[in-house]
Amino acid sequence: MIHRAVVVVAVVVVVVVVVVVVVVVVVVVVAVIAVAITETVAVPVPVLDSTNRRPIKHRPEGTIVTAWGEEEEEEEEEEDDDDDEKEEEKEEEEEEEEEEEEEEEEEEENANRERSELTASFNAIACGTG
Questions:
Q1: Residue 35: inside a domain, yes or no?
Q2: What would the DSSP string read from start to end of 97-110?
Q3: The whole model's pTM is what?
Q4: pLDDT of the residue at 116
Q5: What is the DSSP string of the chain?
Q6: Domain range spanning residue 44?
């Protein structure tokens, strides 16, 4: 009888250990998923000024704010780079618009051609020649 009791206790201990391990694994997996979700979906919180009343205004890189609140540009070369980048972006946008217009015109021409072919075939069928 003692032998059976030892076996029963051993089985109970093994079952308890397995259950604890499974619970720990599930908790870790849920925690990892929760952290991943909160990091990817996190909403940026505005940084408040020293009075904690209004958000700090986001300034472009290289802007110097003096003690009395005036903004100064660090270097004028950056403005030139920004202007060049803006011009390049405008040119790229114009090229994309032209390409889109050309594609639309080609689509319209193809649609008109298909319509005229279908009309001709319907007319031929209606006249009995097709």
A1: yes
A2: HHHHHHHHHHHHHH
A3: 0.31
A4: 87
A5: -HHHHHHHHHHHHHHHHHHHHHHHHHHHHHHHHHHHHHHHHPPPPPPB-TTSSSBPPP--TTEEE-TTS-EEES-SHHHHHHHHHHHHHHHHHHHHHHHHHHHHHHHHHHHHHHHHHHHHHHHHHHHT--
A6: 2-75+96-121
For the stretch 1-15, pLDDT in tens is 668 888 899 999 999
What is the pLDDT averaged over residues 98-103? Answer: 89
Q: Of how many residues is the chain composed?
A: 130
Are 71 and 60 in contact by the 8 Å Cβ rule? The answer is no
- The total domain count for the chain is 1
Q: What does the pLDDT read at residue 27?
A: 96
pLDDT recorded at residue 59? 60
CA dihedral 85, 87, 88, 93 (to 10 degrees): 120
Contact 46, 55 (CB under 8 A): yes
Across 16-27, b (16+ Cβ under 10 Å) vs e yields eeeeeeeeeeee
